[in-house]
Specification:
Length: 357
């Protein structure tokens, strides 16, 4: 990963932000800019120079993960060291991530960083993260490969009487066996009427003939998350659920077709949502169409009815329409899609046709 060029992109924004440096404290952003994978870190980034701060537990780890920045690893509070480096670098206006910092932390910094004006910034690093570089696309592709392979494997173990929790455990095992470092998030496994819940927590409900099975999961590889949903039929589905599956698949394709550089999130959402509404199930689609994936499972840009996010080339974003019928079941189909100059390119290869087991 080219962390230096990422820091240079952020440094190029300092003038527009009217600050001399930025103190990055959100861990996903620190990792994006430095490569550090631990649980305690900040980075002070000025034009042409930066300092990495962590606690004593990560002295050795940061030595090899962050070899190209000056490092401060100490069990003492970092504020005095931050002040010292701000003075050395001539920083008088220091940007900070206002969406990450608590009021208590801000008050402590304001007292400790004498002579430094603190300037709250919006999601500057997060916006840089919207566009994935070639290394990130490679890792996300590997995560999707593991996800697709796990999906293929899990279809062979589904059986009458298996519970949602048991299938979720087998899914985690399949991800591990196919190259995942871990789970992107706790899997959603929903049988039958439980599939009407967009975010169902697996329970001891047993699988029966005629159920639909909704599987929403993803692989974590090298810190990057993917997100994938399929709804399959266990036995003969009801005519309505078959109809709904066809409608959701059509809506998803409409959403993918609407993806392009410069498209606005709410317009892409509308392209898919209109298909479902015209099919008579508009009230059953109760969430946004999608979200970005990367170092976090939910990041920008977003696809929703109120989203004014403009999609850049290289964004990786989910397209996941769904229809949910209380007491009956539901269908969601989801893929992570790369935004390119030529349109949307799904990362995965799993079929979107209805699978009947």
């Amino acid at each position: 990963m080219d962390h230096l060029s990422r820091r240079q992109r952020l440094a190029g924004r300092l003038g527009a932000l009217d600050v001399d440096a930025v103190l990055v404290s959100r861990l996903a952003n620190v990792r994006y800019l430095t490569g550090f994978t631990g649980s305690s870190a900040m980075a002070l980034l000025a034009a042409g120079e930066g300092v990495f701060f962590t606690d004593g537990r990560y002295d050795e780890q940061s030595r090899h993960e962050v070899p190209d920045l000056e490092r401060e690893a100490s069990m003492e509070p970092p504020a005095p060291a931050i002040l010292r480096h701000c003075r050395r670098l001539g920083v008088s206006r220091l940007g900070f991530e206002r969406h990450q910092v608590t009021v208590a932390q801000h008050d402590a910094w304001r007292e400790a960083l004498e002579g430094i004006e603190l300037v709250g910034l919006a999601q500057e690093v997060e916006r840089l993260r919207w566009t994935k570089d070639d290394d990130e696309l490679r890792v996300l592709g590997a995560a999707q490969d593991a996800t697709d392979a796990a999906f293929d494997a899990i279809l062979d173990v589904v059986a009458v009487g298996m519970t949602e929790r048991q299938l979720a455990a087998r899914l985690e095992e399949a991800l591990d066996q196919n190259g995942a470092d871990g789970l992107s998030f706790d899997p959603i496994v929903a049988f039958g009427e439980h599939a009407a819940e967009p975010h169902h927590t697996p329970c001891h409900r047993a699988l029966a003939e005629g159920d639909v099975i909704k599987l929403d999961f993803g692989a974590l590889v090298d810190g990057y998350h993917t997100d994938f949903t399929r709804t399959v039929a266990f036995g003969e589905p009801t005519p309505e659920l078959r109809k709904v599956h066809d409608l959701v698949a059509e809506a998803q394709q409409a959403g993918i077709d609407a993806l392009r550089v410069g498209a606005v999130g709410r317009d892409v959402d509308a392209a898919a949502r209109n298909v479902i509404a015209e099919g008579g199930y508009g009230e059953g689609f109760s969430h946004g169409l999608g979200h970005g994936v990367g170092l976090e499972i939910h990041e920008g840009p977003s696809l929703g009815t109120r989203s004014d996010d403009t999609l850049p080339s290289g964004a990786v974003i989910t397209v996941e329409p769904g229809v949910y019928l209380p007491g009956i079941g539901g269908v969601r189909i989801e893929d992570a899609v790369v935004v390119t100059e030529d349109g949307g390119r799904p990362l995965g290869s799993s079929t979107r046709e209805l699978i009947e087991l």
